[in-house]
Each structure stands twice: as structure tokens, then as C-alpha cells.
Amino acid sequence: MELDRLFQVNFKPVWAFLFAVFNYLICPNAAYLPAIAAVWVAVILDIFTRLFANSRRCGGFLKAIRERVISSDTLWNRTVVKVVAYLCLQILAGLSLRVLPLEQVSIAVATVIYSFLFVREATSVVENLVEAGADDLKPLLCWLKRKETDLTEDRLDVKKQNSQYGGKITGTIPEQADQEVKKDV
User: Fold this and answer.
1) Domain spans of the chain, in order of start
2) How many CB atoms lie within 10 A of CB 21?
């Protein structure tokens, strides 16, 4: 009798529907699973390292709670914004498989999105650890910040050149932009 109850499946159509929608929107291809897992593990690490850094700064976890450095409101507000933003980007990555004609292109789009999210979270984790006292990670943090700044400045240079030359630049890398401008001149 207990064996029958053990193998009895209690099927809830609502949960099946939600799981199907999740898979349709966020994970339409098994290639996305490792990236999804990596991003969400990095998000969890970011939350824990932020709590750890705040605790270290205040001289302990309970003291940080008493001083309201760590509070459910602060943690909740930051986390909700991040979760909503990341879910929206993941839905866009998943839907790219449905919209773009080649599967390889949509996987490339998803790779860019998940790589950006992962690197952003990894940078935040390293920042938190440095704030908590892991000074050995400062060179890594400086390198990550410099690469992020370089990438941002390169993109701004392309936009500036594009506006100067009447929107003729189609490339996204500054060298490509310079070559296209030279062709037109």
C-alpha cells in the first residue's frame, strides 16, 4: 500500500503549464542550460558576497543587521530589479531562437547576452570580495574594470564616428568603422 502511494503521481496542470512556458521562453535549446545555470549561480554568489562584505564592514552579521546595513528591504529591492532585468534578457535570448532564421545565429545572440550577464556578476562578486578584505583580488578587479571601460569607450567611439559620417558605419568594431569610412572618402 505504501509503495503505491510512493509512486503515485500527483499531477498539477498549472505547474506543467508554467514549466512549459518557462522552457519555451527561456530555455528552448539544451545549449542554453549551462549558461542559465552559470548566471544564476553567479547571482546567488553576488548576493552572498554582498552580505559577507557588509558583515565584515560592520564587524559582524548581527551588528550589520542592527545598524540596518543589511535589511530585507535593501536586499529585496536590489534583487528584484536584477531578477526582472535578467529574466527579461533571458527571455529575449530564448525568443531569438524562434525569431532568427538560423539556430547558430540565435545561439550566438544568447551567448553574447549570457556572457555579458555572467561577466557583470563575476565583476560584482570580485568587488564584494575586495570590499570584504580580499586585497589579493585587486589586480583582477582593476583588469575587469579596465576591460569594461575599454569596451564601453570603443562602442562610444563607433557611435560618435557614425554620427559624424551620416550614419554610414555598419560595423561595431572601431577598426571596421574606420575601414568603412575610408571606403566612402
Assistant:
1) 2-133, 146-185
2) 10
